[in-house]
Amino acid sequence: MNDCNHWIETLQAHGYRLTRQRRLIIKILEESHEHLDAETLYDRVRACDESIGLATVYRTLSLLKQVGLVEEHRLGAEHSHFEATPETPHYHFTCRHCGRVIEFAAPEVLNVARELSAREGLHVTDVHLFLSGCCARCQKGETE
Amino acid sequence: MNDCNHWIETLQAHGYRLTRQRRLIIKILEESHEHLDAETLYDRVRACDESIGLATVYRTLSLLKQVGLVEEHRLGAEHSHFEATPETPHYHFTCRHCGRVIEFAAPEVLNVARELSAREGLHVTDVHLFLSGCCARCQKGETE
DNA sequence: ATTGAAAATGAGAATCATTCTCAGGTGGGA
DNA sequence: TCCCACCTGAGAATGATTCTCATTTTCAAT
Fold first, then answer.
1. Cα–Cα dist A68/A114, whole Å
2. What is the pLDDT of residues B34-92, one digit of tens each?
3. A53 CA: nearest nucleotide by C1'
4. CA B74 to CA B124: how far, in whole Å?
5. CA of A72 and C1' of C26: distance in angstroms?
6. B37 CB near a chain A CB, below 8 Å?
7. Is the pTM of this model over 0.85?
8. Residue A26 near residue A7 (C-beta atoms within 8 A)
9. What is the DSSP letter of A132?
């Protein structure tokens, strides 16, 4: 599970420097198998190193996204969530009531993307399928 | 194509008042078969009525979304785009270079949503499939 | 090891879409 | 026509993200 080396090699292959801050952010991102938002990541990083600034967290996320190591998701409307790019793609459902996120696989989606690419001559780099509604738990509990 | 009456009836059925501002915004939204952002809609609305405020545009969009008459899309990361809810669902591809948006149908996607709903006991209310990459035109023109 | 130039950082200001506040205006039922 | 709860306009407030800039740090070449 400790694949930090892969991340570090990728960063260096792109000519980016390896700083204390980037190492730490990568470590936290790998440990957290979740969709962290920038603020949460910032808090966890600060728990290890008080001196790291929020701007650095954003800069590093942007850089990791650029080299393909993390994905950014807009699960709600508010702010972004980030997660390590998974080997096999998956998608997300969010409950509008409790905020719970359910991940799911759906191989058909890539076919849709492939067909569209072929038909329109596109080069598709990102595929986001996002569902929202009311989860099973919330349907029982409340009406609103 | 002039289905304003449907919109107006829907609004009234939900107990909302029919104001000059709301009528105008609905009219513009129906005339524009595009994905308008709030600012563009605001400009078009102002061309007809100088006195309308941006906050009213946002308030009305939010209200129309709530009753299901318009959909909100996050095509890029920046800001939202809005369009009249279409009869048959469609999805979007955005070119990261020129910003062009391509709409496409993909009936399979609803099956994915249905299967997930059944399996997890969810009630899915929104389905967004968003692709991005490089369009055919931009692949020829530029490398970057 | 030392050095130097380019790249990265921290702090806080700036940005920008969207929402909120509140005093005044208006739709539509009685 | 009257009334009042709902709407509106203007501008302030918010909140996530980005930018600025002076200071540090990395790392390739000495």
1. 20
2. 899 999 999 999 999 999 999 999 999 999 999 999 999 998 768 999 999 999 999 99
3. C10
4. 18
5. 45
6. no
7. yes
8. yes
9. E
